[in-house]
Amino acid sequence: MTRTGLLGATVALALLACAGTPARADKLADIMKSGTIRISTDVAIPPAGMMNAQMQPTGSDVETAELLAHDWGLKLQFVPTTGPTRIPNVLSGKADIIISTLSVTPDRAKVIDFSRAYTVLQSVVGGGPAIKVTSLAGLRGMTVAVTRGTTQDTELTGLAAANGFTVQRYDDDATLVTAGATGQSPLIATSVALIDAVKQKNPASDFAPKFVLDNFDIAIGLKKGEPRLLAKLNEWVLANLRNGKLNDIYKKFYKTDLPAAMRPPLVQ
Amino acid sequence: MTLVPLGPNQIAFLLHGAVWTVVLSLIACLGGGALGMVVALCRVAPLRAVRAAAAVYIQAVQGTPPLVAMFLLYFGLPGLGLNVPSLLAASLALIVNVSAFLGEIWRGCIESVPRPQWEAAECLALSRTQRMLRVILPQAVRIAIPPTVGFSVQVIKNTSLASVVGFVELARAGQIVNNSVFQPFLIYLLIAAIYFAMCFPLSWLNRVLERRTGGWRRRPAALTAAIPVVSA
């Protein structure tokens, strides 16, 4: 089955969840009572979620989830997920929240609620030195590779027809990086960190960012109709943007600060 | 970003995934086999309604992907108040899928026992149950070995679908490891080797079982030669 089919099933489930769920106890109260927060995080989307040399989860989303659980005095339980099943996990109650490079899109906002953005995902188009492009318009006639189902996929697919380029999709980030490093795909759209990974895999490719596609707001996802949980998440995000902790996590994995617009003045 | 080297921790993670692939395969084959036997017997039942019901079941299951079944069981049932763990959702979906395919394979095997065998058993005044247990099934089992083993090998590889419900089996473990070490050729070759190590013993078992059950009696060479060749 295709991911599109899965998406269809997700929407069907969302309808089912909206139609058939009776009013339940408050989610925040449930979480606090259980003493454990279940967070849906994909551990195969580096550098947000990945495994370290000891095969323990690490990455910017993993550290964000750990920080949140620590601040709230809860035990953290990661709910294993793949990209397409992040949202079904919270809709079906398998997980309490999503911290997994979930960018805020209008389509997703119909199905789940988003917290205030806690980080950004900078997408760039990158390639080797032989290719000279500086903007979307310059892509005419070319093929850009993306990871299937990512925000870059959605965005470029929408722009492809008008700008005359083709989108080629790979199943996961590692395959996308391999496509770049082996020369199968001379142009790829992804995060800066992965463009850097291509160059590490094959220094001769000399992959570098060509132009910035977009900065996507990344937020925590939760089931609709949980105002208390949403308010507490927003409060937590704001506090940790203010005290610089979320910026520290971002800087550790992306080697640069969060955009200035995202960083409220430091509060001592 | 820093790429992680491929070391013993990564191999251990892959092997841990492989263990779950084996567990899921065993559940699917044993559970699906038991249910498949019922389906096959229903397909050759004397009552027309039972035969028709079994045929509808087989068509419905064979025509729907197990991936969808897993997804609906895992994410759909909680909406009805039933919380299904990923192993249960994956097991149920695979058991149902395997039962339909094995049911139809075995129906074919039962029906391919030569007609005179059925007639001879009836002439001996054996009851229907006796005819099945004593005459037909022992011969059908022998015919069923190669397609059953072949299908079981497919089932092992189909367990990779379970990653959709967050189940970390061999293929998903490989994907996770690959997304931290970025060495796809090595990782996928390793995964292929582990799958082969699981599937090859089954093919070997196939040969042993065929020999044990007598195999097909070879036609004597002299007799084969004696058959006149009819040509135009």
What does this structure look like?
The complex is a heterodimer of chains A (268) and B (232). Chain A has helices at residues 3-20, 27-34, 60-71, 86-91, 106-111, 151-163, 173-181, 192-201, 227-242, 245-254; strands spanning 36-40, 50-51, 57-58, 75-79, 97-98, 112-127, 143-147, 166-170, 187-191, 208-223. With 268 residues, chain A is α/β, with parallel strands linked by helices. In chain A, helix 6 links the parallel strand 7 and strand 8. Chain A is elongated, with a radius of gyration of 19 Å. Chain A starts with a helix and ends in a 14-residue tail after the last helix. Chain B has helices spanning 8-43, 48-62, 66-76, 86-111, 115-123, 128-158, 170-181, 184-212, 221-226. Chain B has 232 residues and is an all-alpha fold. In chain B, helix 2 (48-62) packs across helix 4 and helix 3 runs antiparallel to helix 4 (86-111). The chains are: A alpha/beta (268), B mainly alpha (232). Chains A and B meet through helix 1, strand 2, helix 4, helix 7 and helix 8 of A and helix 1, helix 3 and helix 7 of B.
Short summary:
With 268 residues, chain A is an alpha/beta fold. Chain A contains 10 helices and 10 strands. The model of chain A is unreliable at 18-22 (pLDDT under 50).
Count of individual beta strands of chain B: 0
Number of helices, counting only DSSP H or I runs of 4 residues or more of chain B: 9
Largest pleated sheet of chain A: 6 strands, mixed
Q: Could you state the order of secondary-structure elements of chain B as H and E?
A: HHHHHHHHH
Given helix and strand content, the structural type of chain B is: mainly alpha
**CATH class descriptor of the largest domain in chain A:** Alpha Beta
CATH superfamily label of the largest domain in chain A: Periplasmic binding protein-like II
Task: Assess the beta-strand content of chain A as a share of residues.
Answer: 15-25%
Report the end-to-end length of chain A measured between terminal Cα atoms.
52 Å
What would the CATH topology of the largest domain in chain A be?
D-Maltodextrin-Binding Protein, domain 2
Q: Poorly predicted ranges of chain B (pLDDT <50, ≥5 residues)?
A: 218-226
Percent strand of chain B: under 5%
Number of domains of chain A: 2
